[in-house]
């Protein structure tokens, strides 16, 4: 029977040059992937993402508005413990989602990152387009407080229907959509910086937040975003009724909306856009670290 050749020391130089070749090739591929992903990061592409995210946010608000405010969901005394039902729901769901690999994606940031279990999913090579020293900008605490203290009562009716678990589940979908949109400000800032580093560098070196805010602000774009979100709330949230002979082609009965479109407009103008800009500024402050 032929025996397999035992590796001899004389094979090591060949093995080493092979391994070295693999290393060079894989870092070449990595660089190519990085370059490709950076090429894909343009102001248009990040704005496309923000536009698509509006759909998710508007639909999530419409879903949450199915239930009244349901205050026991937010009151720790309802469960006789330290945490409210919604907080427990978010913590536990994030743990399951962490195991499923959700937070491998740099676009996703958990509200409760401490003690999250490791991902069971094999690592996926998400494009690493963010500047590492700036990538950790995090405003989840502000989003959490804003959502429960300011937003919720604006688009839910008063009252209580006992659907606290469903309420918490819908809150989580809203929170995750808002957080993804707002933290996407890191990608917007990176795209803007790459477009014109010479414009941003002096303000970054001076750590001048006001100058950065001025540089990245486009009032016309903000107005366009707010008007589009308002329209989405009108189109996605209208009550659809069919008369007997209605073919479904007409545009009648557009007066009842599940979420008031002007609230969607103000939600963006007063919270979503300002927080996205805050993330952009914080990101840029660390862009030369
Ligand atoms: O589209 C941009 O340029 C962004 O920076 C995003 C955004 C927004 O949050 O929608 C924020 C700041 C700008 O003033 C305009 C819009």
TrEMBL record:
Alphabetical GO biological process terms: amino acid biosynthetic process; aromatic amino acid family biosynthetic process; chorismate metabolic process
Pathway in which the depicted protein is active: Metabolic intermediate biosynthesis; prephenate biosynthesis; prephenate from chorismate: step 1/1
All copies of domain Chorismate mutase, residue ranges: 168-280
Alphabetical UniProt keywords: Amino-acid biosynthesis, Aromatic amino acid biosynthesis, Isomerase
PROSITE patterns assigned to the protein according to its UniProt record, in alphabetical order: CHORISMATE_MUT_3
A GO cellular-component term linked to this record: cytoplasm
Catalysed reactions, as listed in the record: chorismate = prephenate
Stored InterPro entries: Chorismate_II_sf, Chorismate_mutase_AroQ_euk, CM_AroQ_sf_eucaryotic, CM_II_prokaryot
GO molecular function, one term: chorismate mutase activity
Name of the protein this chain belongs to: Chorismate mutase
Species this chain originates from: Phoenix dactylifera (Date palm)
